[in-house]
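Data card: per-record layout.
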Amino acid sequence: MAIQTLKIDRDLCIGAASCVAVYPDVFEIDGENKAVLKRADGENTSEETDVKALDVTSIDDDMLLLAAQSCPTAAIFLFDEEGSQVFPEV
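The structure for this 90-residue chain is written out next.
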């Protein structure tokens, strides 16, 4: 499985920061105590984002999945190349 895009549901996010603990290169907590994705352009977002726009040289799909699984409210959504949701399972 290759993860192509991901997003964070701000309504579900409680700011537990477990995603930051697991993959701090991709996630951080913003001023509203919600998780956001660290984009290479500096415009951090919770919106659906292509992994190529993230501020990392290479993405580790296993680490992304671990970060998503660590979220106590399942607020991190992962999608494959076809746009199918791979986590959380539907």
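Known properties of this structure: The longest helix spans residues 61-70. The beta strands are 3-8, 27-29, 35-37, 49-50, 76-80, 85-87.

See the next section for split statistics.
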